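Sanity check

After download, print the first record. It should look like this:
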Amino acid sequence: MHHANYYYGHAHVLARYCELPEPLHPPRIQGYLQHGWNIGDGLAPGVPFVEGSRLLVWSEQVRRRAWSQGRRDTVVVGSPFAYLLEMDPPADDEREGTIFYPFHGWEGQEVMGDHRRLIDEIKAHESGPITVCLYWNEHRVRAIRKLYENAGFRVICHGYRGFWWRDTDRDFLVRQLAELRRHRRVVSNRLCSAIFYGLLAGCQGAVYGDPMVLENGDTTFGGEPRQRRQWPEIFGYDPDQSVGYQIARAELGADELARPEELRVLLGWPVSDRTLARV
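Expected structure tokens:
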């Protein structure tokens, strides 16, 4: 099925959770797995979709939105990140400082905005050590990377997402979880997957600063203004962490997770004789 199912090592995380004998080489997922948090129907705008294929989404909210768009074969499975948290319980390590995720582009669209303004605002409102995590697209641009390095920030990249089943970094989410757990706060200039991941992993989340503009961005579902209207509790310099945590649980489907054998069935993966007997 679609190569986006394997972005960020999602299929590898789910294969490990499902206790497959070779989790490093997961079989193809039978359907379209939501690969990032979004305010639409779980698919990225413009993704070619084979009619009749199952859509595997993270949350009940997304399932309802997909239903409203006419996608009837939609199933809530929960997010790969939530499954990763189930498998890797937190340690009691001390957290400090902030990890900041600037809004990013991808191969087909670049982001337009002023990184210097973001740097000034981050410095004004964050205390302790600051880590900036750049998406691979921006991390390879030396001029952008140097702006943050020259500001005194630690600059990292979680890895390459993968594309057309090539160069997938199966430890992307593992690396991201480890970084989130070492920081007290997670911040971005856009509401995004990383904010919800951080909230679920125990960080205080905050969204502020110039949201920047995505080149030829698709505003079918309301764009950034809708994010502010629908999730105002996460915007600002000092949002309520407990409220953000509950929102993250809902958005990431943390209370919708399937058991390993049940998830195998939902993904169209091989099942054990014991599972077949139950079915």
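If your output differs, re-run the checksum step. Summary of this record's structure: The chain is about 35% helix and 10% strand.
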